[in-house]
Amino acid sequence: MSSNNGSDKHYKTIIIGSGPAGYTAAIYAARADMKPLVFAGPQPGGQLMITTDVENYPGYAEGIGGPQMMEDFRKQAERFDTEIKYEVISKVELESHPKKMWTDSGEQYTADTVIISTGASARWLGLPSEEEYNYGGGVSACAVCDGFFFKGMDVAVVGAGDTAAEEALYLAKLCPKVHMFVRRDEMRASKVMQKRVLSNPNIIVHWNTETAEILGGENERGHKAVNAVRVFNNQTQEETTISIKGFFVAIGHTPNTQIFKGQLDMDDNGYIITKADSSYTNIPGVFASGDAQDHVYRQAVTAAGTGCMAALDAERWLAAREAEMEMV
Questions:
Q1: pLDDT higher for 163 or 232?
Q2: Residue of 8, 53, 146, 308 marked active site
Q3: Domains plus CATH for the chain?
Q4: d(CA 145, CA 297)
Q5: Annotated active-site residue in 8, 81, 142, 291
């Protein structure tokens, strides 16, 4: 903790959000003697907390559960004296110096630098059965993350945009049948993506189709598992039950950046815009990492990489500022 402004709640760097980006930023910042404070929120770990098996993160040869992986990240950050608070930041003033932020309980903290790692949340259909079979039961919002578990099985994808098309095409490499449910009689995906989907023999597009219920039971290990989906044609109201093992929701993500609107530059979907090849935002001393600024890759390993970038950028920015102050 820094005390250069006379406050016992002032830090060289505060990291808002946990998950791979936030914890990696903390590890690098702590090792640089920046003594970071992480606001991890009430559910630290981000989207990996609802991921049962992670097999594509380097270093975990046998795979690992998402929650255990985030526990490992947290312990490593704390090993280097990172301070972690399980509170939510609900208000910020980033253009001032020092930067100011307030928790839900009204406590104020200040920092010389801020690293934003608040992530993004997958959009869901809102079906009770969707929630029932999430957390490893066969419902997922990431084909790249979980598609391998359904190799050789029939699956379904919900969505009509580029993300849904990409998910369907990825799964078509692994699965004999990919049922794609499109709510209208046309897709929103780009023309080139539509052409790829429609020409792929493993993808079956169901037009004017919506999901009524995800069906399942227990597998041989006694765990909940998807085995079918009941859909209906929204023009004829005809219902159909299709056998599947995996159900992928690809209707987009919402970045958790609402409290920064009006201060940080964002794209039309709310993702924070960072300067090329860096984590710099439009406000000096504020850096963004992970899914809060990445709508393309959205992987744990890329989030961790940008968390590293943010910590290094913050360290260098702070060192340059301190050098300027000494010259005054």
A1: 232
A2: 146
A3: 10-121+253-327 (3.50.50.60), 124-249 (3.50.50.60)
A4: 11
A5: 142
